[in-house]
Amino acid sequence: MSRITYYEDLKRLARQKRAEYRVNTTAFGLLELRSIYKQEGIRIDHWPLPRKVKALYMCEDGDCSVALQATLPNEPKLFALLHELKHHYRDRAALGAGVIHCGDYDANELIEKGAEVFAAEFIYPEAEFAEFLKNLGVIVRQASDIVEIKRNCKAKVSYHFIRKRLERLGHITAGQFDGVQFQKLEYRIYGVPFYRRRR
After folding, report:
1. Cβ atoms within 10 Å, residue 35
2. DSSP E strand stretches across 26-116
């Protein structure tokens, strides 16, 4: 199976599971994902994982769980949990048989990137994002345009997610806004939200 075919298959799986669980992009967050995990029989455990490891899927004798970095912000946490859900759907047998070794990204690059593709499509399907962008009418010329897209975005996604999706759709080039601290830029443009201000 080619890389493109593999990724497209995972995108189809993500859309199929979204339909199965009646996922509404606007309303989908950690609470809804925890409900999916419960129905799939996967336990979420908070562990002090190494800094570079956001989450880790494990399944032995039908006892499936995901170790999760408790300190992750909500948007990366949502993405990480969906990334691990792909491993539950597609990689469980290989993990159990020792064919795939957790934590070895380089050796499992296709599988890991596939999990990212699955997670991205589950959170915010590419076609739905493209339609949103078209309706928004923003042409990305500068970093503040990405802030505008994020503020109007109906899905719970990070600036990193939006940049990757814009790259994928050809609206920006790879690395075009490297080094931009988008959250700080948003605060500079719109001010710090009340709930984030120190008393």
Report:
1. 11
2. 42-47, 55-60, 63-69
Burial of 37 (0-12, 13-18, 19+ CB in 10 A): buried
| Residues in Cβ contact with 60 at an 8 Å cutoff, skipping those fewer than 6 apart | 96
pTM for the full predicted model: 0.89
Sign of CA dihedral 66, 70, 76, 77: positive
Q: At what angle do helices 109-123 and 159-168 cross, to 10 degrees?
A: 100
Task: Please say whether the beta carbons of 118 and 82 come within 8 A.
Answer: yes
* pLDDT tens digits for range 157-189: 999 999 999 999 999 999 999 999 999 999 999
CA angle, residues 92, 97, 103, in degrees to nearest 5: 70
Q: What is the pLDDT of residues 21-59, one digit of tens each?
A: 999 999 999 999 999 999 999 999 988 888 888 999 988
